[in-house]
Amino acid sequence: MQLPLPGLSRKTGALAHGGDHTRGKRKSRRPFDPKQALHVVLRSSGARGELSMLHPRHRDPILALLNRLKQRWGVAVYRYANVGNHLHLLIRAKSRANWQGFIRELSGGIAMIVTGAKKGNALPRAQGLELPETARRAFWDGLVYTRIVRFGRDFRMIAEYVCKNLWEGCGIPIRGLLAKGYRILEISEDGAVLVSAGRGG
Question: Model-level pTM?
Fold first, then answer.
């Protein structure tokens, strides 16, 4: 389950695009700023069970694909969380063209990795990373969600949020722990370390 998106307000909403945020609204150009970070969410309701992005057949190939594409397109990846039926990324792209190339190949490549591993899937297995737009849409739920994230307090908040999703995806009940009075004391760069203490700790 995805945690509620943080930091969305009337002011920051103008920096967001896609997902449920713009569903039913008039189409507009996706906000982009090469000097700021970008929170990215890709969701697939069908990515469950054997089609989960966390399935052992898919998890490592998806991460390897991400690592290849960030090098190819010059994209900095600050945080990454695979939660099975959706992905969170906190990134920065040097240009709109770099962002578009990166997300096009990432979304198409992941759809191919996941559905290509299951016999009789709806999407064709291909030699390259390019899939027709209609095939990508058959796997993903609507438009990818993005929001421009200002470096500073906003960046730290989203970085922590992505880590919480990572822990939830790994089976760590972070929301339950926080509700019981535990607090986050430290976050490692890759989000793999959770250091917490209870009230008075």
Answer: 0.73
